[in-house]
Structure formats: structure tokens, C-alpha cells
Amino acid sequence: MDPREVVVFGAAAVLYLRRRRRTLRFWVHDTLQDRYQFGEYHRLVQQLRLDDERFQRHFRLDTEQFDSVLSKVGPLIMMNSTNYRRAICPAERLAICLRFLSTGDSYCTIAASYHMGVSTVSNIVPQVCRAIWDSMVKEYMPVPTTEDWLSIAEGFYQRWAFPNCLGSIDGKHVVIKAPDNSGSMYFNYKGTYSVVLLAVVDAQYCFRVVDVGSYGRTSDGGVLANSTFGQALLDGKLGLPQDALLPGAEHLGPQPHVFVADEAFPLRHNLMRPFPGSNHSGRRRVFNFRLSHARLIVENTFGILTSQWRMYRGVIGVSPANVDACVKATCVLHNFLRRTSKTPTRATLPPPAVDSEVAGLQAVTGVGSNNSTREAIRVRETYTSYFSTEDAVSWQHRV
To answer: Could you tell me which residue, 335 or 11, shows the higher pLDDT?
Structure first.
């Protein structure tokens, strides 16, 4: 190559790079310099601390709960100030994250309210969400032990009249913005893009196991099969209790402890689903109702979660990895609120309304490809007989 051509090419490359180079003119934009005087955290939030009820409506946590969470996540989200800029304190970082989870507002809206850059908010929210999960999961959503499973089973029998039940399982589609170059992987049967939250819920409306991040196109049964929980359930590595007698039915012999689910899940000896179809009478209709009576707990829990954290009510416009972090944070915060709320919960609840019962009995057709073993069929038939004889209750005939 001619030396003159090399010089011309080099000069053009330097000019191109200079044009592409982003010149950093300031650390903090002039319009954001007054954050400590007019930012939401330094004005509104401090005023809300004087009214606990308004503070709770704003963040979904009261002041005592906010400070409790802050003490757990604070060391993980603390940043050091430099000669160029002052670090955002952990309390303000937590406030920004909770505001996003509780409203679902865009990063732009929150950034304008808190007088900071959009990129700053976009970094804070997933970082704090991961810190909430890492610092609170062992206390508020630990891996259940055999004793924990037995306690859950006792709660389901006392509150929901289903013995040997270890939890209610279902999946929830969390609607997201279509990720770039993702094709139809996240496109679900509802016509939206989503990731799936698979959850096991106990009798107290608390999450005991969650699996987040499966593609929206995957069925609930497929999500279970691909999850760590589903593999452990299939391999018998969950530490489930040994088979136990059903109350008042010693002659039936020990029966396995089971999870309850809807028609989208397979029938197994430790996973009960209703009889398919809707034209049932007699014992099968009673079994479907009793199973639905216990299974609706997980749907009620999803309803509480959605009502509490309103990011679920819209399209979450962040990356799937950050969506997973936000979902896990709300689940562990849900358990935290259930266990620390000052409002007492009722010890027992009446049977669901007739409309809920009928809705729970409606079956989804087209799922007959699930292969059921003889042992699983035997267990379901045993429960079917038990609910119509030894454990029959008056309200199961209301439908």
C-alpha cells in the first residue's frame, strides 16, 4: 500500500473515532444537581415517615419493615463516595427499588422523580433486587426440611381439609417486553411475551419454592419438568415425609404425601391433578372439588402478589435476567410481609364461594398426553373414595 494511502486511512480512522467518542462533560447533569433539595427521597419520603399509613401505601412496607429490610440489604448495596461524586445511600437505593416494584413505573419516571439519571436507576433496581433475594431467602424462603413438609401438611388439613398435602403448585405468566432476537421463545398462548413463575405455596399463602425464568411458550407441566424442584421431586430428593395414614381411615393403609395442581400438570403418585373433563358426578366430582378447594390457594397467593406489587399489572420493560431478579425479590418480600404484618390473619377460613368452586372444577381439554402410572391412579382413587366416605363434609355438596 502506498504510504500516502496509509496516512489518509489513518487520519480518517482517527476522525471517525473522535466523532464516535462520547465526551463526558459532567458527572451529574445540571438539572439533577438539586437532588438533595428536591429529590423524592430527600423531601417526600422523609415527610411520609411521619405518617406510617401513607408510608406503607407508598412502599408496601411500613417504616419498621422498611428499616428491617434495609438492615439486611444495606451492607450489600452500599457504595463508596469518590472525589468526583457522592454515593447514593443504601436507604435511597432501597426506596427506588421498592417504588419500581410497587408501581411498575418506568425507569424514566422514577429517575425524574428522584432527580437522578435513568442509567443510575436501571443499575440500582436489579442490584437491590438481587441483594434482597440473597440476604432474605434463607430466613423467609428456606429449603423445606422434612419437618417443614409435615408442618405444611398439617396446615392444609386443618385449614383446607386436604390431608397429606404438601403444597399447591401453579405457574404464573409474568408479562415482559419482547426481548430482542428472541423469536417466539417468550410468546405464550395468551398472545403476550412472558417468563413463567412456578411456585409451591403453603396453607398460609406463603411461597415455599419458586422457579423463575422459563420461557413463556413452555407449558406448566414442561416448566415443572425442567425446573430444579421438578427434577428433585421426580428423583425423590426433596426429603418428603414417609407415607402416612389418612385421618379416620386406617384401613386404607399409609398413603403418600402429595402436591395438588391443575390439569396442566401430570398425574404422579406425589402430584394430584383433577379428573379431566367437566361431566363428572358422584365421587369424582367430589374429588375434583376438594382438590380445587386446596389448589386455589396458589391462585389466591398470586392475586395477593399482583395486588401488592403492581409491576405485575403491566408490561415489564427490562431484560429477562432483571425480570427474574425482580420477581424473586417480590416473592421473598411477600413472605416477609406475611410474617411481619401487624394485621392478624384469621386462623380458619370458610369454604370458597360457589363461583370459585365452579371455576375450579372447569377442566382444560387437550392435555391427555400426560402418562399416569398405575400407582398414581391408585393414589387418586384412594383419595376419591376417602373424600366421599370417611372424610365427607357437608359443604362439599354445595355445588
So the answer is: 335
- Lowest mean pLDDT: which of 14-18, 139-143, 285-289? 14-18
Query: Which pLDDT band, with edges at 50, 70 and 90, does 23 fall under?
Result: low
Whether residue 197 is found in the same domain as residue 324: yes
- C-alpha distances (whole Å) from 282 to each of 355, 385, 389 are 20, 10, 11
SS (H, E, C) 228-263: HHHHHHHHCCCCCCCCECECCEHHHCCECCEEECCC
Q: Say if 26 falls within a structural domain.
A: no
Assigned domain for 5 exists: no
Burial of residue 93, with CB atoms counted within 10 A of its CB: 0-12 exposed, 13-18 middle, 19 or more buried = buried
Q: Taking the CB of residue 321, how many other CB atoms lie within 10 A of it?
A: 12
Q: Which amino acid is at 83?
A: N
Mind listing the pLDDT tens digit for each residue in 104-122?
999 999 999 998 889 999 9
Instruction: Provide the residue range defining the domain that includes 317.
Output: 146-343+353-397
